[in-house]
């Protein structure tokens, strides 16, 4: 008997096949399979095809459990661009793949920890709503940390 | 392509950034990040975030929060912190204490909070105060005087511990005095209370040493009895009742017993007397 395969559909309507026993590492997919057998295509309207390809690559990994930790770390290290990591974290959150989400977020935290304030705002698309005076007050209070 | 990704990023739900990424950033960077925007400042200074961050630091081994050591700079009113990395040490610039005058460290720090004794001259009188201090944020809280004669503070106290209780998320200070009274301060209620129920038990203990270790919601005190005998006194932090654990007979008579908690076990180092 051949292994059961599921089809996932990205936001831009691309289809990806994955064996069910690997796909159910995602708690979201596991619950869908449990509920209705998920015979048809599973749509993932918030995940684009590039990110979904990464998620599939991750789910397909063939790692011994004791090497898994290192593998996940290396997996996100090799995709060290913040926009990619954020997309990956978002997809992992939606699909409820905790290890992948934690690793992607840890990598982002690692990258931004030494960023200047301007770099943080740019990387995470945050608008500066502080006046220079307000910023200076915090700088003065925690001078040693700047 | 970078352009396309960037537009999508503005839709990033806050859950990822605020609840998943920021808790993994070290405390020192988070102080700077208060400047990023107003939302970050109010979030980073909220008790909710403090709990999420603490949970991350205490439950993951591979986190960004390096061990920190606080050093008092002798002859000055300043201190500095040292971050211990895998590849060495970095020292931060000296900072002034936010309170009057540094005296001494009173208990093992808990979750980055340090309990110190500070002295100051108030109305021509020398007074001592306990201060619970966060060296990272400079915030501190003066602890009200315990309900006993504090002029003899240090000679009068035979055990003093700072600990965190998970069940009600409170920080507490425990003092056992040389006359066998036990007082507990709760940061939440900002008040001291005397543990009445424990008196009988403690009366039989001639001396409770000041080193205690927390394990699974209980504080363990190394307790010395007469004639080179020791035992462990255990305080259940939830019920606030003392119990005792006898040492194996092979530990007697001991010259000295040291107690530590290593990987979820109580570890005793016993120096047996006799042949050196």
UniProtKB/TrEMBL annotation, chain A:
<comment type="function">
    <text>Involved in ubiquitination and subsequent proteasomal degradation of target proteins. Together with CUL1, RBX1 and a F-box protein, it forms a SCF E3 ubiquitin ligase complex. The functional specificity of this complex depends on the type of F-box protein. In the SCF complex, it serves as an adapter that links the F-box protein to CUL1.</text>
</comment>
<comment type="subunit">
    <text>Part of a SCF (SKP1-cullin-F-box) protein ligase complex.</text>
</comment>
<dbReference type="GO" id="GO:0009867">
    <property type="term" value="P:jasmonic acid mediated signaling pathway"/>
</dbReference>
<feature type="domain" description="SKP1 component dimerisation">
    <location>
        <begin position="98"/>
        <end position="145"/>
    </location>
</feature>
<dbReference type="InterPro" id="IPR016897">
    <property type="entry name" value="SKP1"/>
</dbReference>
<dbReference type="InterPro" id="IPR036296">
    <property type="entry name" value="SKP1-like_dim_sf"/>
</dbReference>
<dbReference type="InterPro" id="IPR001232">
    <property type="entry name" value="SKP1-like"/>
</dbReference>
<dbReference type="InterPro" id="IPR016072">
    <property type="entry name" value="Skp1_comp_dimer"/>
</dbReference>
<feature type="domain" description="SKP1 component POZ">
    <location>
        <begin position="5"/>
        <end position="62"/>
    </location>
</feature>
<protein>
    <recommendedName>
        <fullName>SKP1-like protein</fullName>
    </recommendedName>
</protein>
<dbReference type="InterPro" id="IPR011333">
    <property type="entry name" value="SKP1/BTB/POZ_sf"/>
</dbReference>
<dbReference type="InterPro" id="IPR016073">
    <property type="entry name" value="Skp1_comp_POZ"/>
</dbReference>
<comment type="pathway">
    <text>Protein modification; protein ubiquitination.</text>
</comment>
<keyword id="KW-0833">Ubl conjugation pathway</keyword>
<dbReference type="GO" id="GO:0016567">
    <property type="term" value="P:protein ubiquitination"/>
</dbReference>
<dbReference type="Pfam" id="PF01466">
    <property type="entry name" value="Skp1"/>
</dbReference>
<comment type="similarity">
    <text>Belongs to the SKP1 family.</text>
</comment>
<dbReference type="GO" id="GO:0006511">
    <property type="term" value="P:ubiquitin-dependent protein catabolic process"/>
</dbReference>
<dbReference type="Pfam" id="PF03931">
    <property type="entry name" value="Skp1_POZ"/>
</dbReference>
UniProtKB/TrEMBL annotation, chain B:
<keyword id="KW-0472">Membrane</keyword>
<feature type="domain" description="F-box">
    <location>
        <begin position="12"/>
        <end position="52"/>
    </location>
</feature>
<dbReference type="InterPro" id="IPR006527">
    <property type="entry name" value="F-box-assoc_dom_typ1"/>
</dbReference>
<keyword id="KW-0812">Transmembrane</keyword>
<dbReference type="InterPro" id="IPR050796">
    <property type="entry name" value="SCF_F-box_component"/>
</dbReference>
<dbReference type="InterPro" id="IPR011043">
    <property type="entry name" value="Gal_Oxase/kelch_b-propeller"/>
</dbReference>
<dbReference type="Pfam" id="PF00646">
    <property type="entry name" value="F-box"/>
</dbReference>
<dbReference type="InterPro" id="IPR015915">
    <property type="entry name" value="Kelch-typ_b-propeller"/>
</dbReference>
<protein>
    <recommendedName>
        <fullName>F-box domain-containing protein</fullName>
    </recommendedName>
</protein>
<keyword id="KW-1133">Transmembrane helix</keyword>
<dbReference type="InterPro" id="IPR001810">
    <property type="entry name" value="F-box_dom"/>
</dbReference>
<feature type="transmembrane region" description="Helical">
    <location>
        <begin position="102"/>
        <end position="122"/>
    </location>
</feature>
<dbReference type="InterPro" id="IPR017451">
    <property type="entry name" value="F-box-assoc_interact_dom"/>
</dbReference>
<dbReference type="Pfam" id="PF07734">
    <property type="entry name" value="FBA_1"/>
</dbReference>
<dbReference type="InterPro" id="IPR036047">
    <property type="entry name" value="F-box-like_dom_sf"/>
</dbReference>
């Amino acid at each position: 008997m051949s292994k059961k395969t599921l089809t996932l559909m990205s936001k831009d309507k691309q289809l990806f096949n994955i064996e069910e026993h690997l796909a159910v590492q995602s708690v979201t997919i596991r619950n869908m399979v449990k509920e209705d057998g998920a015979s048809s295509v599973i749509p993932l309207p918030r995940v684009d095809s590039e990110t979904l390809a990464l998620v599939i690559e991750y789910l397909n990994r063939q790692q011994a459990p004791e090497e898994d930790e290192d593998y996940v770390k290396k997996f996100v290290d090799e995709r060290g661009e913040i926009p990619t990591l954020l997309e990956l974290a978002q997809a992992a959150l939606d699909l409820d793949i905790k290890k992948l989400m934690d690793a992607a977020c840890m990598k982002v935290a690692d990258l931004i920890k030494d960023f200047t304030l301007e770099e943080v705002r740019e990387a995470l698309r945050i608008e500066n709503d502080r006046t220079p005076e307000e910023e200076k007050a915090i700088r003065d209070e925690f001078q040693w940390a700047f | 392509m970078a352009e396309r990704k960037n537009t999508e990023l503005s839709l990033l739900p806050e859950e990822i950034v605020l609840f998943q990424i920021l808790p993994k950033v070290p405390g020192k960077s988070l102080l700077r990040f208060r400047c990023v925007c107003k939302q970050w400042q109010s979030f980073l200074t909220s008790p909710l975030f403090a709990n999420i961050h603490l949970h991350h630091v205490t439950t993951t081994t591979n986190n960004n929060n390096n061990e920190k050591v606080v050093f008092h700079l002798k002859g000055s009113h300043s201190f500095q912190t040292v971050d211990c990395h895998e590849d060495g040490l970095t020292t931060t610039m000296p900072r002034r204490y936010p309170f009057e005058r540094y005296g001494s460290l009173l208990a093992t720090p808990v979750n980055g909070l340090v309990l110190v004794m500070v002295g100051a001259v108030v109305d021509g009188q020398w007074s001592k105060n306990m201060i619970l201090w966060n060296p990272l944020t400079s915030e501190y809280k003066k602890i009200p005087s315990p309900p006993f004669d504090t002029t003899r503070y240090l000679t009068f106290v035979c055990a003093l511990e700072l600990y965190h209780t998970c069940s009600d998320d409170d920080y507490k200070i425990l003092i056992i005095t040389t006359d066998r009274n036990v007082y507990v301060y709760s940061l939440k209620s900002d008040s001291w209370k005397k543990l009445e129920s424990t008196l009988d038990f403690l009366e039989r203990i001639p001396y409770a040493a000041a080193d205690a270790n927390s394990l699974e919601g209980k504080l363990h005190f190394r307790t010395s009895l007469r004639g080179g005998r020791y035992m462990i006194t255990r305080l259940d932090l939830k019920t606030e009742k003392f119990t005792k654990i006898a040492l194996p007979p092979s530990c007697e008579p001991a010259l000295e017993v040291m107690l530590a908690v290593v990987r979820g076990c109580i570890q005793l180092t016993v120096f047996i007397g006799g042949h050196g």
